């Protein structure tokens, strides 16, 4: 019993050391965002700011236009997530519940594309966007990402768990396939959809290289590009840089802490059922 | 279950609303500026002298003249999209002065950091969605020349330009893409406070590289654990330029006699590379880092740095507490070398080839205004702390009193211009070569071969057409490799 | 399934109904979308890899297998592959081992389970761009957190990102911090799914905890481990963002990875032909790794245990 107790104590010690390592960068970033530039550059360092300087936030939010980047990021991430969810569910239903020739070929091809690394397509896709005239527009960020192989794969798994009898019953009642999909299937897989939503949203929120190459107009920047440009431009204003980083990290972190159960569910579903 | 369903419906509704809002806005911002001039092409300010009302504003310029009383774009509203890198303040001031004369013109400035600017600009121009007018730099002219409009002879007659400007550079096919406004080169900045603390005086200003090493040894500081807290000398981030300077000082051209292929695999380059390596490995006066020496200097972790003229203004604005001095690049024997270094030109902005003629006319008018008005040229001269490339400004008080230009009065005639070469590609590969030697223990003799092959291969695969102007330098006969 | 099939026959015999419509719309959209945004770019990139293709000079000249021959002889390319393998091997190893240890610990403690899971997962939902910047500043030689901590213990400074020996390990460290939480959660789920009767009968048989770990826990987590290892290997072989934001491949070529090389060729030299060539070489490597893993998975029983 005593041995068990000391073992528990050791485990707690280990885990709490881990916790401090995990949290340290967040705290460092958050605390630095309230310091003056001089204080950040001072050696030896201070942990807590001498005076909390909130004006960094006002400056980054308005002068550096993080409010605009933030709005743009939300807009693109939400739109893209919505489209991916809808098309993944639709493709999942068609490929998982309806029988037709070539179905397996298509599904295998979709699976195979998950193995294609991004560097293979980025150069020709860049050229394609130029030809289509989509460069500089959000179309280039949203349309090529409308179908996600990962999303289709995941939704097909979930839709195939929907009892076929339910669908048959609806068909006997005379419901068309679109009606069945929208009114019956979509609500039944809504839990899985929200899990997928979280993953796709995170991916989009963090997408850097493609938006960086595609978007030219400063008023259309997304948060990650804004942050990268910003740190090139203000490379010596560490106070503002930390503030900018905090602004792009904290909202998602808060969302995560609020909805963490669903987050974890989504992540584990994507992993284990794979 | 029910709860999640209603949540889902709610989310979907929100998404739909956002999508609707988006469809109106995704293509918006970018095109807005272009639609400013949606009217029929009309007399472009220059060709047709539209009803000259009483000339109340004085005409600007000596030979190349600008008449502020002449209307632009027939007085109709027009917006030009202007991209700048770090030069926002200067462009803003140019734009403000110009739009005060021509209130019907709107100049919309978009700025990005230096490195990103040169990545995005050529790609945007190439894809046809680039800006109308943009900051340009001679190092990058070749990568953008296919998308740029050459300066029209009708607006900028050769005889007028040659009468007013020095250092005019044309492309190989004789086209002009920008007028030079200021000339800059390299030198050494030193921290005056550290200089005094180390017991050094004005008489210790190094004339030779060996003297510089001696001074650097006195300026280098280590803490008790042996960490270098102050580097006596640093060229971090600039070592490709410094290597090039040492190469010229030794009378060695960068290009072979064809002018289209670089030559790095020779003893002079190898010696220069070894000299640079020894600064850290033998003399221990510097520490090679992936940093920029101007920031090391500003933060007080370097006492002397190699850099170009612009750094002086950068210190004044970013690190106002630093008191700096400046001296000319040392040489190997203390005598005047064949050339100290290359020189760099600051240009008038470039114009996008694909914009319509109405916009082009306004763009050239704006550029003519900048070039003809000495006040506007001085803004560039001051920003870059460069020698003016306009003859009328040579004796301007700023030029006479500037601590950098005072020194450069003697050295700038001994600097060399390549013309338009793929400078950025060369810089990148030479930097990689030096880093391979400094960080990766690659033998110097291997590094120069690799770099030479890679640079020449990159010219070939890009299909670039250019020729280095090195050999038309006035003192070219003093060089070893003709 | 059977009733599904009869339904299909019934409707197809008579009309082009909603079933045919939904299939043709969806399949049509998939074919157009994948054709346009995936298969076309792949083929076009393959085509372009046989050309001197520069988009700023509009140069497009056939050079045969020149690009491939040159890249295969280029020591920097091999160095970049080595860096890929170096980064991938140690990141995967550390992520897997550390997350297993942490998941086991969280599984064994009695309280704060949710708290621990929440905290360890936090870096996963953090933007990689922001994380790269913050870590880069923490690695700063003079004002960074790490060297200041070393100062407190009177230890000599480490040049983290600017020393060729420590640059890659520094990026690996950041990656482990960022990604461990994901694997921890997967392992925690895996641990919950092990029937407790297995442990009980083992205890009755007198097995000590070490034996239980090696003979029960680890084998039962095999599918989770495979998933973690496989997905991470494929992802890490394409690592780009932390390299781009923290070291730009330097110092020298010590963090120059293949993805970064592709980016560098395409968007710094505008040499699209060479960039395409390198990406197909990388694709080839990833295919080999994937096939090797599939073969291994099949032999060992795979995900389904």
Automatic annotation (TrEMBL), chain A:
Family matches, as SUPFAM superfamilies: MetI-like
Q: How does it sit in the membrane?
A: Multi-pass membrane protein
CC per GO annotation? plasma membrane
Q: Which GO terms describe its biological process?
A: transmembrane transport
Q: Where are the transmembrane segments?
A: 9-31, 74-94, 106-126, 138-159, 180-205, 240-259
Q: Where in the cell is it found?
A: Cell membrane
Q: Which Gene3D superfamilies does the protein's record reference? A: MetI-like
Q: What is its main location?
A: membrane
* Residue span(s) of domain ABC transmembrane type-1: 70-259
Q: Which UniProt keywords apply?
A: Cell membrane, Membrane, Transmembrane, Transmembrane helix, Transport
Member of which family?
Belongs to the binding-protein-dependent transport system permease family.
Protein name per Swiss-Prot or TrEMBL: Carbohydrate ABC transporter permease
Organism in which the protein naturally occurs: Cohnella pontilimi
UniProtKB/TrEMBL annotation, chain B:
Q: Report any Pfam family annotated for this entry.
A: SBP_bac_8
Domain of life, per UniProt, equals Bacteria
Keywords assigned: Cell membrane, Lipoprotein, Membrane, Palmitate, Signal
State the signal peptide span: 1-27
Q: Show the segment(s) annotated as Disordered.
A: 26-60
PANTHER family attached to this UniProt entry: ARABINOSE-BINDING PROTEIN-RELATED, POLYGALACTURONAN_RHAMNOGALACTURONAN-BINDING PROTEIN YTCQ
What is the protein name given in its UniProt record? Extracellular solute-binding protein
TrEMBL record, chain C:
GO BP annotation list: transmembrane transport
- Does the keyword section mention Transport? yes
Q: Which InterPro entries match?
A: ABC_transporter_permease (IPR051393), MetI-like (IPR000515), MetI-like_sf (IPR035906)
Cell compartments where the protein resides? Cell membrane
* Listed SUPFAM superfamilies: MetI-like
Q: Which residues form the ABC transmembrane type-1 domain?
A: 81-293
**One Pfam family named in its UniProt record:** BPD_transp_1
Gene3D superfamilies hit by this protein: MetI-like (1.10.3720.10)
Q: Does the keyword Transport apply?
A: yes
UniProt cross-references to PROSITE patterns, sorted A to Z: ABC_TM1
Entry's transmembrane regions: 21-44, 85-106, 118-138, 180-199, 220-245, 277-296
Per the record, its GO cellular-component terms are: plasma membrane
Q: Which superkingdom?
A: Bacteria
Keywords from the UniProt entry: Cell membrane, Membrane, Transmembrane, Transmembrane helix, Transport
Bilayer disposition of the protein: Multi-pass membrane protein
* Family membership: Belongs to the binding-protein-dependent transport system permease family.
State what protein this is by name.
Sugar ABC transporter permease
Name the species this protein comes from.
Cohnella pontilimi
Organism classification = Bacteria, Bacillati, Bacillota, Bacilli, Bacillales
